[in-house]
Amino acid sequence: MIKRFSTLYIGHIELENCGHSGTPADDRRYSNERVIEAFDTTLELAQTMDELGYEALWLAEHHFQHEGYECIPNIPLLAVHIANHTKRLKIGCGFNIIPTWHPIRLAEDYATADILTGGRLIFGVGRGYHTREVESFGNPMLDAEANRELFEEQLEIILKAFNQNAFSHQGKYYTIPPAVPYRGYTLKEITVVPRPVRLPVEIWQPIVSGSARGLDFMVRHGIKGVVSATAEQFVDRWFRDYQSVARTHGRELQLGEELILGFRMSIDDTQELAIRKARPYFEEHAKFMGPLGMLRYSEEHVKAVAARQPQSPTAATIENGVQNRTWLCGPAEEFIGYLKGVEQRYPGLEHVMVSCPLGTPKKIMKENLTRFAREVMPAFK
């Protein structure tokens, strides 16, 4: 039964001249004064959501984006700031890009934020999709297999750091600790200080291609999944695959259990008005994400995601998005009707994420979140 709602804000600033005919993505370059506007927007959204009764504000970690699209490099640090200015809202890491971190440093930062926010930070992990980010930190992204190997070893280390009073690790990429002399003895293990107060740590990961290997890795390590902005045919397939993999590991889950379902949304009095309001930001989002191979509106898109191939920004329209339910556009009663149907199909699903695409002005994001909270969320309480 759906009972929790959240949103995703990936850290864009207010962009002028949005849409396919607007400024090319690679031609955008903003000053430091402009990109740090994302922090003020984050806090304003968080305070609005805190008052409206949302479960969580999910944030995305990204680096080097002078284009103004994804401007938050450190979620745990920002979460502490948000927690000091809100009362109950949780802050989700959607997601920490582990290959841009040393795994122990990430474990320490999360543990510190867990303590300082009173347990309001939700841990999330991802492999990344920007070569400029991951490769610039000295780790593989072009080599997809090496990227996955590194990610899996890093997560193993993070779990040890969270859950063990003292640990060691010997793997392909890391030897922890090194066998060095320290105050008269040779290091054989280390203890992360501090460790999270709340154990076991709840961990979330995006499901972007639905591969059998990826789902098996998640279930084996107790990782929950986020399926967002994905055509409903793949939502249904991946929800069932996740449940099936859990069963092979001896866990019986209701369909949709331990998963979040996410949509882009535009709420207005009619579907026509909602689509018109969202169109330039839909196009800007596709213009940025398509060349990175991150659109999931069709079978061709999902195959390209799995192969890490670029996609045409114009290969999908917002009308197509509404039809395949990657988008919810229209009045509140249509949102409620569709989500009630989702509730029937996936009885284990508790958490729905609704968000606005890149470039959406803060004013419109707040209007959407306010109308959704007042007109849609009460139907699920």
Describe this structure in words.
With 381 residues, the protein is α/β, with parallel strands linked by helices. It has helices at residues 32-35, 37-52, 75-83, 103-116, 131-134, 144-163, 212-220, 232-248, 271-289, 299-307, 318-323, 332-345, 362-375, and strands at residues 4-9, 56-59, 90-93, 96-97, 121-126, 169-170, 175-176, 181-182, 185-186, 203-206, 224-228, 259-267, 327-330, 351-355. It has an eight-stranded parallel barrel with strand order 1-2-3-5-10-11-12-14, surrounded by six helices. The chain has a two-stranded antiparallel sheet with strand order 6-7. A two-stranded antiparallel ribbon has the order 8-9. A hairpin with a 2-residue loop joins β8 and β9. α2 (37-52) runs parallel beside α13 and α4 (103-116) crosses α6 (144-163). It is globular and about 75 Å long. The termini are close together.
